[in-house]
Design goal:
Blueprint lengths: L2 E4 L2 E4 L4 E7 L8 E7 L5 E8 L4 E3 L7 E6 L4 E6 L8 E8 L4 E3 L3 E6 L1
Parallel strand pairs: 2-11
Antiparallel strand pairs: 1-3, 3-8, 4-5, 4-9, 5-6, 7-8, 9-10, 9-11
């Protein structure tokens, strides 16, 4: 599966963005997709995950502000980000894994100004 992330940009604190991750093949079935964030000099860390059954997991700092979702018919995963904070700034990567194979999309930059 090849992934294409989009939707990043520059936004003021308190604003919103929607990230999209389009897949080249079907994303239906037993897999996990997610969004990861990387800041300069740091490792890539999980922000949110969604399973094939739509079970979701979030890091504490984004709970109640971010929503991860997937549309299998459109082969696309989303991350709706609201009430953005400067600490949300980073390069966001989408990820897919079925336990045997894994794939990363290219990053999309999110910058939140104070």
């Amino acid at each position: 599966v090849q992934l294409q992330a989009s939707g990043g940009g520059l936004v003021q604190a308190g604003g919103s963005l929607r990230l999209s991750c389009a897949a080249s093949e079907s994303i239906a079935g037993n897999n996990v997709m997610g969004w990861y964030r990387q800041t300069t000099g740091n490792s890539r860390n999980m922000v949110a995950l969604i399973s094939g059954s739509d079970a979701t997991t979030y890091i504490d700092s984004v709970k109640d502000r971010f929503t991860i979702s997937r549309d299998n018919a459109k082969r696309t995963m989303y991350l709706d980000m609201n009430s953005l904070k400067p600490e949300d700034t980073g390069v966001y990567y989408c990820h897919w894994s079925n336990g045997r194979q894994t794939s990363w999309g290219q990053g999309t930059q999110v910058t939140v100004s104070s």
